[in-house]
Amino acid sequence: MGNIRALALKDKSEIKVLVVAEDHQQRMAFSDTVRSCGFHLVDCVTPSQLKDKFDGYESAIDIWLIDSDYDEHLATMTAASNPVAMLVGFSQAPYLNEAQHYAKWQRKFKRKLAQLLDLPTLIDNSVYKDDISDWRYVVFLGASMGGPSAVKAFLDHLSPTLPISILLAHHFNQTMISTLPRILNRHNDWHCQMITSSQRMRTGQCLIVPIDQQIVCDSTGRIILLDQAWVGDYKPAIGQILKNTSDVYGSELINIIFSGMGNDGTQYLDLIQDNDSQLWAQDPSLSTCPSQPQAIIDSGYCTFIGSPQALAEKLTNYIANKATNDTPHSFIVSEL
Fold first, then answer.
1. Is the peptide bond before 236 cis (omega within 30 degrees of 0)?
2. Sign of torsion, CA 21 26 28 30?
3. Closest Cα to residue 187, out of 158, 219, 229?
4. Is the pLDDT of residue 328 over 80?
């Protein structure tokens, strides 16, 4: 292999890592861990994808992480890149929202990397810290056509000091989605931003889901950005995110569907009723495009309907009542 000592002298952001794994769950876990180490993740692929993409990698790979059959093709490609280190074969990673088990698996994996690469700081330092979140509830907003004005009106009447973190999934044109934070930030104190990397939720934030990459939320309040596109007609997939967040946060989740076209958000409602998540909708008669909130209402699971201002007032009162009556905050852990 190459020179381990030379690798240890590099800035961690300059250490290039390529992940090859057949299992989707493993690829998610490896991608998350490599980024948390501060390394540069060149790619995370299946063996078949690697064959098609290998010639496109412009620079040498420092570390290969391989969790698949190490066949002749892989041996040839790894040798051609002249890596400093190569790890083959790993224990199965838990789901990312199984916080305790996943953290244990990740620590074990980092210890292996630290020993192999002579980088003891990998064990001590992490991009993701296990600090206590300053929010108590997650508010998931889904919107489509006519959504920007409705969501902005909602935020304009909602205090950013509430113990909530907001996650917004909006069907939008890829070339225009970058303008959404600027639209929503005007004349209020909310901090609206696109999700461009894995990060933690915070109060006062409205995090906007990307159109071209999937996300997964875990039980510690972390939003994990995946290296794969959304599947299906809706991008981002409101129904998919609603199910993930409901399975993870349960009664600490409030879902609100605003103006939009179609029925995205209704796909999994039958499956999540035991989670006790709230489901509200904008009044269709006050929506630029009524079909999406109407589909939520027609499901029979919607418990509040109102204007954006009324929804903001309902949320404020709901949280105030919960603060009076509820027991202390606890996360709900569930498989994806």
1. yes
2. negative
3. 158
4. no
Judged by average pLDDT, the poorest of 1-5, 142-146, 250-254 is 1-5
Residue 100 token pair:
């305790």
Q: Say if residues 258 and 288 touch (Cβ distance below 8 Å).
A: no
For the beta sheet containing 215-217, the strands, ordered from the edge strand earlier in sequence to the opposite edge, are 199-200, 222-225, 215-217
What integer best gives the mean pLDDT of the chain?
85
Nearest Cα neighbor of 281 from 259, 262, 250, 252 is 259
Alpha-carbon gap, residue 156 to 309, rounded angstroms? 8
Amino acid identity for residue 237 in this structure: A
Q: Which comes out higher in pLDDT, residue 311 or 87?
A: 311
Query: Under a CB-based contact definition with an 8 Å cutoff, are residues 20 and 90 in contact?
Result: no
Q: How many angstroms separate the first and last alpha carbons of the chain?
A: 38
User: What does the alpha-carbon distance between residue 256 and residue 142 come to, in Å, rounded to a whole number?
Assistant: 6
pTM: 0.64
For the stretch 194-206, pLDDT in tens is 998 888 899 999 9
